[in-house]
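Hey team,

Filing this mostly as a record. A colleague (T.K.) asked me to run one chain through the structure pipeline before their review meeting, and I want the input and output archived in the tracker in case anyone asks later how it was produced. No errors, nothing strange. Just documentation.

Input sequence:
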Amino acid sequence: MVPSEIVNMTAGGSDISFWPYTGTSLTDSPMDPINLVFKGEADPVQIRAALMSLDGDRTDVFPDMPPFNLPWTDALGGDVQTTYLEDGGWEGCVIQMTLGEYSGLRVHLRLFATGLDDGQGGTYTLGGAHFEMMIPGTSEHQVLSWEWAEAIVTYDLARTGLLAAYPEPTGMINAAPSFRTIPTFIYNPMVEDGMGQMLLTALGYPVEEQTENFPLPSDGQGTLLNLGGALPTTAGEYTYSVVIEYEQAIPRPVCSDGPYDWLFVTGPIVFNTHVQVTAQGRYVYDTTYDGLLNAVPIDIETFQPIGPPFFAQVSGEQGGLHNGARRKVKSMDRRLALQEGNPELFFDILQVGTIGTLGYKSFEKCFENEWTN
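Output structure:
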């Protein structure tokens, strides 16, 4: 499927036309805005090397506290996302980076190689960056700002000394004055918490409870960054792990009966990521996660149980290769709800890149009253 909303941007005498959003499939259902466009010495491996060369000292602009005083690392977790190029088709994100821990506040950056000539001997890379928090009691994240993340990436690439020109706005390429929202069940607890109040104040958001989901501000523009040089790629292997304890009410993720079908879920999920990079710029990664959770159907208004508990098995893996023009990324996610008499099954498989088969499949099966003892 070709997205209907394609934008054209001219930079330095060359054009690039692309879908100004990211997705989690091969459709035009947007997830995040593209808010960074890199050109020049801008292969994602080069951008990664530049950001990872920096220390965490940003005290001239940002507070001396996490995540703003931390160095960049490869990102642990995070959906595999896609975007679309008019000249090139669907492209997947192989390289993800993070500023901050998985279980706290962090800046999350996804890089999409294009292989497209920028007209000056370099190439284009697209980026989607957001500032987010992990939702307490879950392994999921909530975006808090697009603009903060865009500014931090721009600030840090300026710190590398590699920019060949001042950063420029891309012009209007996606939604404004807002894109997506912060749900009230996440926003309002921040109003009641001292650190949450400080964060809302810093973001410029009202420190008062909301009756409706809060619109995430977006100016509709990205930032164009022209990289005039590159740092040597350092060969190495990197391993990242985290255990997240679920203890939260969530909408039923599989076979939901509607907006009031909720579960209270407890138990651990283990995430592991391994990254290998060669001095020649070949980047390979694999990520796995696995957990056996206890789920209890609840009345979302009273939080009282309304059904017997059951186990839910969640697992998945993803892996990617980036080696110049050879790129691919694949992910598979599974959910199996072991309810007596009514098991539920979900699979989601995505593969995209310049090599291998392009494909996406999502499968959900609800075995209502089909399996009994």
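Quick notes for T.K.: The chain has two domains: 7-227, 236-366. The two ends are 44 Å apart (CA to CA).
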